[in-house]
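Suppose a colleague, Dr. K., hands you the sequence of a protein chain of 153 amino acids and asks what its three-dimensional shape might be. Before reaching for any lab equipment, you can write down a predicted structure in token form. Begin with the sequence itself:
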Amino acid sequence: MFDPKSSPFDLEQMTEFFKANDFTKAFTAPTMPGVDADAILAAQKKNMATLIAANKAAAAGYQELFAKQVEVFEATLGEAQKQIADFDPSKMDADSATTQGEVAKAAFEKALGNMTALAEGAQKANADAFEVVSAGIKDSVAELQEMSKKTSK
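The predicted structure, expressed as tokens, is then:
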């Protein structure tokens, strides 16, 4: 067990030493003349806020895209189930084969249109996120240029 009386360190002297010396000054950020660290920190906080906003925009776009994908999948599945239920191979003749071909072609074109809409939705989500980040970067660069002008005077 630790006995302060038998320790080679005098706790009272150590306590007085720490009270007399302010060691918190050693942990303060170094300052450079003409550099506003608070302004740089504020700019970085804005950059983080911009990235968060961009991620939110992208997430919203992807949620919308996912909802469209589910809608397309359900519609396609419903149509396929209807076609399977109505299909009777014993009644297949030239006219019904032509009809089945037209139905398949229409389904393919609809699926292609849906895939195009989904791709456009993904592109829009990415473009929205890019706009947010791009605007934030432009603002950040302008702020840094403004700080640079102030420090060079």
